[in-house]
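Q: Can someone sanity-check these two? First one:
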Amino acid sequence: MDKLTLYIGNKNYSSWSLRPWIAMTAAGIPFEEVLVPFDFPAGNPRFREFSPTGQVPVLQHGDVRVWQSLAIIEYVAELFPEAGIWPKERGKRAVARAVSMEMLAGFRALRSACPMNIRRPKGKIALADGVMADVARIETIWRDLRAHSGGPFLSGGFSGADAMFAPVVSRFEVYDLVSAGDTLSYIAAVKAHPAWKKWEEAARAEPWIVEEDEV
């Protein structure tokens, strides 16, 4: 099999890069990581060398190039069906994909007001309209799925759905947005995962500062 190469941006800021990276790492799927930092306003012109959209992440697999986080997760799930990226049971798999699509397409108020910034000291900010409605909906998703699966993750074991919500774990914590015990329990479970720890350690060691994401 041709090797997998995942192009990503800064680990401190790039929420979309985190999603396929943590899904693949948690599943034990081997890949080469190529980090191209977006230390320019609105990205990096070098992204155009490998990305049709000028954005990250992008997965290269032989002649196949896949962009968008969820599309990459779906692609590697098909390549490695034994890795368990999605639940085996059809109903659980459908729900995991549904909430992943909801994350992909929604929660714009939260994403805009609270950009991912793993190094940011914990503290509240003034919130725009709609942010807490997004927070409430995400908490409901987490609560319902974990109640159904038994936890500790959304589908029981770590899955593509957890990968899609991984950047929210950071946002909820660093902007001090949540206090419910079950939400904090899920955050703790994700942060205890070895894949999360590996990403976070690298993010904290990065030298780049992107001012527009320093809320």
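And here is the second, same format, sequence then tokens:
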Amino acid sequence: MTEGFDGRKRETLRRFAAVGAAAPFVGTASADDGSGDANETREAIRGYVPTTPGAHFSKLRDDLRLGTGEAQYHLRKLEEAGEIESVKDADYRRFFPAGRFDETDKRALGYLRRETPRGMILALLRDPSATGADLAEALGVSRPTISAAAADLEGAGLLDRTDGYALTEPERLLTLVVRYADSFDAEAVAFADEAASLVAYDP
């Protein structure tokens, strides 16, 4: 069982390390410690973070099949080297490639990584006239759940509730969904396939 897990972990790390090898910030000497395993893990994180920006610690750790301490150690080294950065988002710490996203992008990606807010954003991008009742039905959740998520999105500056529900940065959100759809879920991928030709915003 252990050998099978180790094999899957190595395969996962190599897959993301291949992406990391092509990343613009690869090869920062201060982030490496000379260990082959450590370098492979760092390269995997270098590949993972730019393709899954805004992922929180637990998701990154689990997706890369790392131990908690192992993930914490390598993330800290990469952050100290200025290759990645993190922001606190409620109970989560989310990771981004350093210098790539502005604060609004980071907030938007944080909410796109939450199931209900992401579903609301996708629904409002499809139909800007959707009501709270429409959103609750589309997502299969209660109206109070929609109201709570809407309040959070409004607080983040991504939603205006003055007259119904209106996204304040639809082009930005559309671009982020399309660009990183594969790192969200199947619904985002389907949406991106339909919407890719509409993207105009380029952060």
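A (reply): Looked at the second one. Strands lie at 55-56, 84-89, 92-97, 159-160, 166-167. The two ends are 45 Å apart (CA to CA).
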